[in-house]
Amino acid sequence: MPLKVFPRRDRKLNRLIKKATSLELRRGQTLYRAGEPATELFLVRFGHIRLVSPGPGGEGTPRSLRAPVGSSHPKGKVVAVAGPGELLGEEALLSETPRRWEALAGEKTRVLVLRGRGTQQALQTSPKTFQAFLEAKEAELALARALSASRRPGGAKARLGALLLHLGARMSEKDQKALSIPIALTHQLLADLSDAHRSTVTTLLNDWIYEGTLKAEGHGLRILKPKALEKG
Fold first, then answer.
1. What is the mean pLDDT of residues 62-68?
2. Which among 60, 101, 111, 188 is least surrounded, fewest beta carbons within 10 Å?
3. Would you give the distance in Å from CA 22 to the centre of its chain?
4. How many Cβ atoms sit within 10 Å of the Cβ of residue 54?
5. Model confidence over 102-116: pLDDT tens digits?
6. Is the Cα dihedral 151, 205, 211, 220 positive or negative?
7. In the beta sheet, which residues pair with residue 231?
């Protein structure tokens, strides 16, 4: 799962980020492909990156038949999303590890490019970010348990509610009174992540907005009544 970093609190990580190069991506543009060697990590500055399972043209497809990096082409299911302040591409922390997923920009997005070895050394001496890493893994396991417990018929509401609360907790600023998801997430993306039908996601979101549980805010969402989502 993408990792929220705290560069202002960890000096070594902050120095590394200041030296990083910036890369801007348009919506649908490929950042990296599954199966490629992982040597770099990426810190999202704005926008978001979707991690998707390899689809046509991905791992296992001859290179001569693959679309070039940066092109838009059909993909598989979305398995995770990285938003502002989150680090992705953690395979680069391990030597000679290939990319597991394909990464595409979900909207106009800017990322910082960090070398894997340098980032590994910075994280090892960045206690606050390391603590955030442990908390992120704990939250990831909690979400997985919530999604697994809601596989029963009609459980899509509980799964989507758990997913929205998870994203809101990850992406909200700590001083905000309400949870918010400040990125443009399509209904199909939310359907993939919650293992639900897109039409079901659309219906549930509209119902929650009408009931005052959610509020459309910019191109994102604000969660006004978290307890209503907890009930599913």
1. 37
2. 60
3. 19
4. 19
5. 999 999 999 999 888
6. positive
7. none
